[in-house]
Specification:
With 215 residues, this protein is mainly α. 66% of the residues lie in helices and 2% in strands.
Length: 215
């Protein structure tokens, strides 16, 4: 449970670790798109974490990154084909950001920092937690932007707001404003305690930094 909840709250990839911000801001104009991107990313996270955990003792250390890329790209291609075949409207809405899941730093980060060092069940739970945290963060950003920017939520019209919306929320500046406000709200709610834990000692990538001599 601790591993599962970590990605949702304590180490939320978007609002705490500030990872995967490009798709988080680009596709979060509508709640439906946020759910689609979150589900696709979660699927790739789960598959890649499980696969890498299973193969962690087989993959040579010197070529682990290329191997991760091949595995992740394969799962992303599968997701892309399925979405294009069965949810073409969503496929068009996500555009280039769907295949770009292959280079999402959340997925590579969990592969290197967790799946490469833990057993399958733990890696599976980590992926579910991180995917859920990513999806919930996207949904929060997208809901605010869609409600105030378009006067709708999941395409349903909201009285008053439908005729009195603020279009800037659907544009890039609005995305940055909403994201900044949510990060500030998280810091206020946690009194900065969660973020303070992520110094060199608490950072999930501290070990990699130490190995690279960049700590």
């Amino acid at each position: 449970m601790n591993i599962l909840m970590k990605g949702i709250i304590k180490e939320n990839p978007v609002l705490i670790l500030l990872l995967g911000l490009c798709p988080a801001l680009a596709v979060s104009t509508q709640a439906e798109n946020a759910i689609g991107m979150g589900a696709a990313t979660t699927f790739v996270l789960v598959c890649s974490n499980v696969a890498i955990s299973l193969l962690r003792k087989i993959i040579p250390d010197k070529v682990r990154i290329p191997c991760y890329i091949v595995l992740i790209a394969g799962f992303v291609t599968l997701v892309q084909i399925v979405v294009e075949a069965y949810a073409y409207t969503l496929y068009q809405a996500l555009g280039i950001f769907l295949p770009l899941i292959a280079v999402n730093c959340i997925i590579f980060g969990r592969a290197e920092m967790f799946a490469n060092k833990n057993k399958v069940i733990s890696s599976f739970l980590d992926a579910i937690g991180m995917g859920a945290g990513f999806t919930l963060a996207l949904l929060a950003i997208a809901s605010i932007r869609e409600i105030f920017g378009s006067g709708t939520w999941f395409g349903m019209e909201i009285p008053i707001l439908i005729n009195n919306n603020i279009p800037i929320f659907t544009l890039a500046p609005g995305g940055f404003v909403v994201f900044g406000l949510l990060v500030a709200a998280v810091n206020k709610f946690t009194k900065g305690k969660v973020r303070k834990e992520f110094g060199c000692k608490g950072c999930p990538q501290a070990e990699a930094c130490k190995k690279g001599g960049t700590e």
